[in-house]
């Protein structure tokens, strides 16, 4: 049986972040890979093949050794590690093993679009504390036009998340995307999310940085 540790292609590690990527003091770990190709993606390097050449491949053990320097901050503020990207849940095996190494006291957060196979989400339901979900828009046509992908996986995983994770541990982010969704579309997305049982929802204006 292959017992090798999974490798995480890391393009950035940002320490001492406060109230931007989760609770308390956090370290944001940016990893390569994303199924979406959003027109205004703020991290296009996360799926640019040239980025992969510059990534540092890290085992869960290696990442722990790199970030444990801030453990006192994590414990004092109930913070920890936020896995971002790209799409963090593409690396569910890594996150699962990292939890086993760092122990139960750090808060592990994932930033995700949930547009991944359900098995990826299922793997980390017991390993991750908090979820920050960027849904784009729940209108299938708008979602497809903006991301280039079907919304089906996202919808399935939203329902799965609502059934297994307490609401206080889920933040749903709904961007107002210029040229793509309007107030009426955002209202429809909010109503659908509330119908699924989500309570912690943030609507925000999207600032265009990169137009693909």
Write a concise keyword list for the protein shown above:
23% strand; 8 helices; TIM Barrel; alpha/beta; 8-stranded mixed β-sheet; 212 residues
List the helices and strands and how they pair.
Blueprint: E1 8-18, E2 25-31, H1 49-52, E3 56-58, H2 60-67, H3 71-77, E4 80-84, H4 92-102, E5 107-112, H5 118-124, E6 130-134, H6 140-147, H7 152-164, E7 170-176, H8 183-196, E8 201-205
Parallel strand pairs: 2-4, 4-5, 5-6, 6-7, 7-8
Antiparallel strand pairs: 1-2, 1-3
Helix pairs in contact: 2-4, 4-5
Walkthrough of the structure:
The chain is α/β, with parallel strands linked by helices and 212 residues long. It has one domain (8-205): TIM Barrel (Alpha-Beta Barrel), CATH 3.20.20.70. It has helices spanning 49-52, 60-67, 71-77, 92-102, 118-124, 140-147, 152-164, 183-196, and strands at 8-18, 25-31, 56-58, 80-84, 107-112, 130-134, 170-176, 201-205. The protein has an eight-stranded mixed β-sheet. The longest helix is centred in the C-terminal third of the chain and has 14 residues, at 183-196. The protein is globular. The mean pLDDT is 94.
Per CATH, the class reads Alpha Beta
CATH T-level topology = TIM Barrel
Structure class: alpha/beta
Radius of gyration: 17 Å
The number of E-state strands comes to 8
The domain count comes to: 1
Overall mean pLDDT: 94
> What is the N-to-C succession of helices and strands?
EEHEHHEHEHEHHEHE
Morphology:
globular
Strands of the widest sheet, in order across it, are 3-1-2-4-5-6-7-8
Spans where pLDDT lies below 50 across 5 or more residues: none
């Amino acid at each position: 049986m292959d017992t090798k540790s999974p490798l995480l292609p890391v393009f950035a590690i940002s320490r001492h972040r406060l109230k931007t990527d989760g609770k308390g003091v956090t370290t944001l770990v940016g990893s390569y890979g994303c199924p979406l190709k959003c027109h205004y993606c703020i991290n296009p390097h996360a799926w640019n093949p040239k980025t992969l050449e510059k990534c540092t491949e890290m085992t869960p053990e290696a990442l722990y050794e790199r970030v444990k320097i801030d453990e006192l901050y994590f414990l004092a503020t109930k913070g920890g590690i936020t896995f971002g990207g790209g799409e963090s849940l593409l690396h569910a095996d890594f996150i699962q093993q990292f939890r086993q190494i760092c122990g139960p006291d750090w808060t592990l957060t994932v930033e995700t679009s949930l547009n991944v196979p359900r098995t990826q989400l299922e793997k980390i339901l017991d390993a991750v504390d908090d979820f920050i979900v960027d849904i784009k828009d729940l209108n299938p046509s708008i979602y497809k036009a903006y991301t280039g992908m079907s919304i089906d996986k996202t919808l399935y995983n939203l329902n799965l998340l609502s059934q297994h994770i307490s609401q206080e541990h889920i933040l749903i982010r709904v961007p107002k995307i210029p040229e793509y969704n309007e107030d009426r579309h955002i209202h429809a997305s909010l109503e659908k999310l509330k119908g699924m049982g989500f309570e912690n929802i943030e609507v925000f204006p999207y600032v265009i940085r990169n137009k693909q």
